[in-house]
Design goal:
The protein is an alpha+beta fold. The chain has two helices and eleven strands; from the N terminus they run ααβββββββββββ. The protein has a domain of 135 residues: Sandwich (Jelly Rolls), CATH 2.60.120.40. The strands form two sheets. Strands 2, 4, 5, 7, 8 and 10 form a six-stranded antiparallel beta sheet that branches. A five-stranded antiparallel beta sheet has the order 3-1-11-6-9, with no helix packed on it. About 15% of the residues have low confidence. The structure holds 2-acetamido-2-deoxy-beta-D-glucopyranose (2 copies). The site of one 2-acetamido-2-deoxy-beta-D-glucopyranose (NAG) has 2 residues, from loops.
């Protein structure tokens, strides 16, 4: 009788341990995200997968010696990269003016408009911009600002620090920044009133480049 009770107790403990083990196994088999492991991505059916399939794929891939999860190419709408320059000097002008460009290195995605000098974000996301300018004048300073929707974000500047001793030799300045933009936000360079920016066909010392680092929604 005592022996039977002990056996039942042992069986009970084994059953509890067994069900715990099952629970742990179930939790570890829960769907994981496949490509992008952002929070809450499990709710997106495109990011979930069957763990059994993963194991099979992984085993097969290892056997073949290939990466089981190669990076996915970015959809074409997210390829945004431009680089433009001036081939001639500009300024001084009587007022602040959106800087026009006459040379295009690249404009993937077509978001930079040579007619207006405006970059218009085709998709909400995080963008990188860089710009540069050169001063070659004893009389005028060089000042270019990077503007977003009517607000100045950053500038490049070269001036004669000693007005008694003006220096016409070249001075170069550049700046870069990472900006979050919403779709249709506009970014452009502005040359300040009474400022100059020197450039040539050979050097293209005045230039503006930008590209999309990553869109807010990778499936937009
Ligand atoms: C800028 O200067 C030009 C030339 O003097 C003038 O015609 C134009 O009205 C000015 N623009 C602004 C916004 O002040
Ligand atoms: C600016 O760039 C020009 C052309 O590349 C160069 O000749 C000049 O020395 C540079 N100026 C300075 C101050 O580095």
């Amino acid at each position: 009788m005592e022996f039977l009770r002990l056996r039942l107790a042992v069986l009970g403990v084994l059953a509890i341990v067994g069900s715990l083990g099952l629970r742990v196994t179930r939790a570890s088999a829960a769907p994981k995200c496949r490509w992008v492991c952002d929070e809450g991505s499990n709710r997106d059916s495109r990011l979930t997968y069957d763990s059994k399939m993963e194991m099979n794929e992984g085993r097969q891939a290892r056997r073949l010696g290939v990466d089981p999860y190669p990076p996915q190419p970015t959809p074409p709408t997210h390829r945004v990269a431009f680089s433009v320059a001036r081939t001639t000097p500009i300024g001084p002008l009587p007022n602040d003016t959106i800087l026009p460009f006459d040379f295009m290195f690249s404009n993937a995605g077509g978001a930079f408009d040579m007619e207006t000098g405006l970059f218009t974000a085709p998709v909400s996301g995080t963008y990188f911009f860089s710009f540069r300018g050169q001063k070659r004048s004893a009389q005028y300073l060089m000042y270019l600002g990077l503007w977003k929707n009517g607000e100045e974000m950053a500038g490049v500047y070269e001036d004669n620090l000693d007005p008694q001793n003006p220096n016409p030799s070249p001075g170069n300045a550049s700046n870069n920044l990472i900006l979050h933009l919403f779709e249709r936000d506009q970014v452009y360079l502005m040359i300040s009133d009474n400022a100059i920016a020197f450039s040539t066909v050979f050097g293209k010392y005045v230039g503006f480049s930008g590209f999309l680092l990553f869109p807010d929604n990778p499936y937009a």
